[in-house]
Amino acid sequence: MDRFNAMLVFARIVELGGFAKAADSLQIPRASATVLIKQLEAHLGVQLLHRTTRQVSPTLDGTAYYQRCVLLLADLEEAEGLFRSHQPKGTLRVEMPAAIGRLVVFPALPEFTGRYPLIELEIGLNDRPVDLIREGIDCVIRAGLTVDDSLVARPLVQMDQLTCASPAYLRAHGVPQSPDELSGHQVVEYFSSVSGKRYGLEFQIGNEVRLIDLPKQVSVNSAEGYLAACVAGYGLVQTPHYHAAQLVREGRLQEVLSEHTPPRLALTALYPAHRQLSPRVRVFVDWLVDLCSRPASGFRRAKPS
Predict the structure, then answer these.
(1) Is 305 a residue whose pLDDT tops 50?
(2) Per the structure, how many domains does the chain have?
(3) Which residue of 13, 31, 145, 268 is surrounded by the most CB atoms within 10 Å?
(4) Any idea what the CATH number is for the domain that residue 34 is in?
């Protein structure tokens, strides 16, 4: 029995919740995965997995063994990386908001793939919550506060935001010159599909954030839908600069209250602690940090000359 290979298969089964998914991700026959786990359990003398027709989950011994496995596998990958002369390779699974992928990452991605041609990227574009361990995701990019202490958080950038609305909406409701003139206006409300939290307008006034609640006719739970509703004339929105900049240039949206800016929004790369030493994850996150720092990324507004 190849013990390290058996440990890798076992860890992937725990992360993905099944033999078939683990075998597919490792590109091995399902029967081989089953044999390796039986050999591993026989070698250790304990049952590592609970098996039912619907799911596979670790036993108490399996959970303890998994925690040691991921540390050992990370150490092994790091040790091999120190002595390998070739570039990082293999599949890297990444999740990110659709707008960031479309407007920021994909236009620059040929630079990354040209530098690391042996890395195969699987990129999911969505705002949904993901279980990185269970779904086998290596890295996720998220905007806003991060509260999962089980993940390593790498700050990417503090994004400038702007307040805007469609020209048609502003013709009908007027152009506010200060937050005090927002009476009679309405917002497109954004709500989190995870927490259910609903977001109105926020303005940075000195060291404090001022919250303003306005009526709404439409609420959405996706960044793309949020701007689409704004373009359709349903009210004011606040969004990262990179997301609305093109629509503002095209005249489909108009910025308002530019002297009263919303607070900046954090953008963060998150990945499981046991993958922080993976060369694939490391080079990708390093590239993201550099990409987000560039003026052309659009995350920060150009300062008037």
Answers:
(1) no
(2) 3
(3) 13
(4) 1.10.10.10
- pLDDT tens per residue, range 171-199: 999 999 999 999 999 999 988 776 677 88
**Do residues 62 and 48 make contact, with C-beta atoms less than 8 angstroms apart?**
yes
Tell me if the pTM is above 0.90.
no
Q: Please tell me whether residues 143 and 273 are part of one structural domain.
A: yes
- 77 and 107 assigned to the same domain: no
Task: Provide the token pair at 233.
Answer: 């004339």
Three-state secondary structure readout of the chain: CCHHHHHHHHHHHHHHCCHHHHHHHHCCCHHHHHHHHHHHHHHHCCCCEEECCCCEEECHHHHHHHHHHHHHHHHHHHHHHHHCCCCCCEEEEEEECHHHHHHHHHHHHHHHHHHCCCEEEEEEECCCCCCHHHHCCCEEEEECCCCCCCEEEEEEEEECEEEEECHHHHHHHCCCCCHHHCCCCCEEEEECCCCCCEECEEEEECCEEEEECCCEEEEECCHHHHHHHHHCCCCEEEEEHHHHHHHHHCCCCEEECCCCCCCCEEEEEEEEHHHCCCHHHHHHHHHHHHHHHCHHHCCCCCCCC
Q: Which residue in this structure is represented by tokens 């359990």?
A: 41
Q: Contact 61/50 with Cβ under 8 angstroms?
A: no
* 102: pLDDT strictly greater than 60: yes
Residue matched to tokens 């599949």? 91
What the block records as the tokens of 138 is: 């290596």
**Model pLDDT, residue 167:** 96
CA-wise closest residue to 219 among 187, 189, 186: 189
Query: Do 276 and 138 share a structural domain?
Result: yes
Query: 138: domain range?
Result: 90-156+266-297
Dump pLDDT digits (tens) for 152-172.
Answer: 889 999 999 999 999 999 999
